[in-house]
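User: You have something folded?
Assistant:
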Amino acid sequence: MAKGKDVRVRVILECTSCVRNGVNKESPGISRYITQKNRHNTPSRLELRKFCRYCHKHTIHGEIKK
């Protein structure tokens, strides 16, 4: 079996509001989550509402390239 065309792939979700505002002195970093998605069911980029510990609220986390 070929290893290159896996159906379930690992994706990294990054907080969009932290990236848009930039990393300031008060915020030590950018919130990131690692999850999996099915490439056949979700061919577009994944966006989920997750908790950002640097913004201290629920924000939209979008898929980024590895």
